[in-house]
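hey m, so remember when u said the tokens were messed up on ur end? i reran from scratch. heres the input so u can diff it against urs
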Amino acid sequence: MVTYRERQSDQPFLDDLLRAESLGGPDADKALWIVSWGFDVPRLLRRLRGRAVAYHAHSSGYGFDLPPGVPVLAVSRNTLGYWGDRAGRAPLLLVPNALEPQWIARGERPAPGSGSAMAARRPIDVLVQRRKCSAYVLEQLVPALRARGLNVDVQTGWVDDLVALFNSAAVVLYDSADYWRGRGVSEGFGLPPIEALACGCVVFSSLNHALADCLDPGVLGHQLGLGTLGADVERITAAVAHPARWQADPAALQRLLEDLGEASLQQRWQRALALLNRHWDRLLLAAEPPLRSASRLQLQWSRVRQKLAQLRR
């Protein structure tokens, strides 16, 4: 981990490392730099020009383009597709975020082949985390669910044990669509719904951006905002009354959790890093030129020329 805005006593600082590993020096081609904070990526890439670098992409929609040859390590298929459009001639790899082992080890979910029933009714009927939550959920849906007599817990502050909290809830609501739309960027990965699934909760979620990667409606989760308030209230009330009928398919959930486990993702990272090493050896050591994608302006001009040629015939 390298800091670049403020110095920290326990972390290396970017300016110091760049001075120590100057371009053309013996150590300049031995490091692979990975940048990740979307707002700062263009500036960091300019500072790292001529060095082996990759962009670890979470949210998309920041509006910048990448220099030719800069690989993308995308945490979701949604982000992968975004950069497949904007940087389709650069190496693109999928390396999802890992689910912390505590969720897999302590989450109280039905095991595959055991049926899908909770051991006992949980004390929280519906759990909502206020952070990133929509006004629709907080101002319309929550009051409507409480009017039905459901115990709805809106979590606002710090929680010492999130696994225990999720294990105590029958249903979890997650609606981040308005939050991210208002900021003009995407939900990069969306861990909370997956954490809830790992704890055996029935999940009702928005399906924006990367949430659609994993939340197959009706298989692993359910859409939140299904056309009308009444439809949401009816389905959530039914899920609280009979959670086994609404829980994620245990076999599908097990496959998802295995894919997001540390062992599986370590293998993904190993393969990705090996590919990036070969890529940068070609660019920096063999001096091969990187492929370049045609710009939008070039593509539009090409279409205009084709239409003009057709008119002349």
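this time it looks ok to me. Residues 134 and 178 are 6 Å apart (CA to CA). if urs says something different then somethings off w ur setup not the seq
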